[in-house]
Amino acid sequence: MVGERVNLLGLPRAQLEAFVAQRLGAKPFRARQLMKWIYRRGAADFSAMSDLAQDFRAQLREVAEITVPQIVTEQVSSDGTRKWMLRMDEVQGIETVYIPEPDRGTLCISSQVGCAMDCTFCATAQQGFNRNLSVAEIVGQVWLAQRELTETRAGGARAITNIVFMGMGEPLANYRNVVPAMRIFMDDLGYDLSRRRVTLSTSGLVPQIYKLAEECNVALAVSLHAPNDELRNELVPINRKHPIAELLPACWHYIDQQNGRSVTFEYVMLDGVNDKPEHARQLARLMQGRPAKLNLIPFNVFPGTRYRRSPAAVIARFRDILNDHGVIATTRKTRGDDIEAACGQLAGKVTDRTLVRLGAKLHSTPRTAVET
Ligand code: SAH
User: Fold this and answer.
1) How does pLDDT run across 262-281, given as a tens digit for each residue?
2) What are φ and ψ of residue 9, in 5° steps?
3) Which residue of 138, 198, 201, 332 sits with most ligand 1 atoms within 8 Å of its CB, as the best mutation to test the pocket?
4) Is 343 a catalytic residue?
5) pTM reported for the whole predicted model
6) What is the DSSP letter of 228?
């Protein structure tokens, strides 16, 4: 067979059907069988797919593969949060975080190696932008997490009930690969999650929010972080291109297109910067009567940051002002900060030094490649 093998991981159903038809002369139901094996049963080896004919499996091995990223380290927080660092190349890695709660399990995934948005309070920004992740690398994070969780706990197949694009990178800047990945998350032969359980979080790429409203109806979270342009220009520089007066109408349009549901606005609480009562009142004016929820995130420190976390009492007061104005606001519980897995702490450098340091801190052993 000439040419490279096609990685089946991350191929949306229609493309997989076309692939089995064109390359293997097989019927569409073969594609459906393959999807069940790959996503439901976590298979990465065609030989294990026992309900496929021997010949078909042999053919598959020649033209296709199921390749997932390589786990470099796994860390487990005292609160049960897990963080995996996945190797993308010699120096760069990305991080994926699993956050268990009594009623759900949320997987926080990355969409890029690094990030170009340059938000001043985010650790990922410090490493700059390296590249977009492919669909296989995005879906591969879920595949790996599911495998790891299945190995370590009973009923692991249901361990992941929610997926959020709140890891490294700006998902709407990698629209081309993020949307097909989300389709697999929601496909009933994929991870079979309802659209409300898949959340895309963006720093506010307005044109792509409009595009997404037409094409994919997942839950939307927007990193607002400031109630006026002056402050938001400083904290979230993309605001200079797409100011609040453009961003919010895009959000309301998104909700209109989808019949209800609200946008979650993320607001990181930075001591003395954006946490004053006046800011809460400004914010309330922007949100009143709108399909909006505010999620206040206590700032998570990282090496080299100039910011500090707002005191708990200040956060509570801020939340109360919003609630008093009829705006729903909640405070996000900080999870996994002892392993630098909390919001904004993902940096993903796979330098030798990092490997040694992480290796020393590990609660469990580093994993090696999952080759197929
Ligand atoms: N690029 C996307 C998704 C990644 S970040 C976005 O901007 O929405 C997920 C959330 O964590 C965002 O709201 C982000 O602003 C927030 N965040 C970043 N750094 C943080 C930090 N140090 N402490 C708390 N939250 C942070």
Assistant:
1) 999 999 999 999 999 999 99
2) -65, 125
3) 201
4) yes
5) 0.91
6) S
